[in-house]
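Query form — protein DUF2157 domain-containing protein

QUESTION: What is the three-dimensional structure of this chain?
INPUT:
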Amino acid sequence: MRVNKKESKLLKEAIEEWENNALIDKTTAQKLRDTVSPYRSEFDTIAFYAAIAAVSCAILAFGALVLDEKWIERIRKYFAFSEFAIGLAFALCSGLLIWIARRRNRKYPYASLANESFTILIALTLGVSVTYFSKSLSISTDYYGIAIFITAVLYGIVAFYLNTKLLWCCALLALISSWGAQTYAWSQDTYKTYFLGMNYPLRMTFLGAAMVGCSWLLRQQPYFKKYYSFTWHFSWIFLFTSALFLSVSGNLSYEVWSAIRQGKLFMWAIAYTVLLIIVLAYAIRNKEETLRDITIIFFLLNIYTRYFEYFWNRTNKGLFFALLAISFWLISKKAEQLRKKLS
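ANSWER: The structure tokens for DUF2157 domain-containing protein are given below.
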């Protein structure tokens, strides 16, 4: 049954209520949920792309004003403000924006996209606030990662308070950035390549695995329910991306990697392929369609990557791109069949 998003939400809430009151069992409840298929109207599509445009323009405008023109620094020097005062001013601005966002959520609960896009201003002002507070404390470059981690924590707290996925996404991105920056600062070798014997792709892969594990452990927590699906799939994408780079580079520095033949890293490629097969089997068995689709995409990327690694100089380029065209045509044909089946 295809219904609009509002009707879909109402039906799912009713099914959940019936399940909680033991009027239907879990199996029946899941079957009923599977029969409800929400569709996006033309106005939903326009609102979605308009929200993306608004967020993009806000980031570009903020970046142009703060990074290029450096108007904050000009104001600070002209009025002889301290860096702490600038940080405090942006912290107060963030507090005001959080209050406005909270009020908007209560007054306009139906305007979810507009409310979500508004929170990008909170992310930007909070980031500037932490940056200037860090400058005022004269934090050295060895602790930039910790400052970014504090920003990630603040994003996460505000995301839970405002019930917004956009800020939660910013929190996850800040967490990844903090891990990369801090492990770089803690690297002891000459070229800042290794941390605890791991190069960048390997330690990012471990972080991705940790994020997947944490998402799985928190899946049953009520407060994490809204963010579970997004965090779960985001973590898998990050893990697959990091592991793909690892399958190409191995746990080697750039100097060593560029001096050896790619065939010597074949075991890393096999390990990555095995990982994809295991996750694909898990997704199919547990009927996780989104994870299944993500894994298939990375499986294709894995095949193309292996081709560029081992066969680029030995295969006719026209033949390769012909095979590439056929594969993408088959994908589009399958997607079209699924679309017609669901419509």
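ADDITIONAL NOTE: The chain has two domains: 40-186, 188-312.
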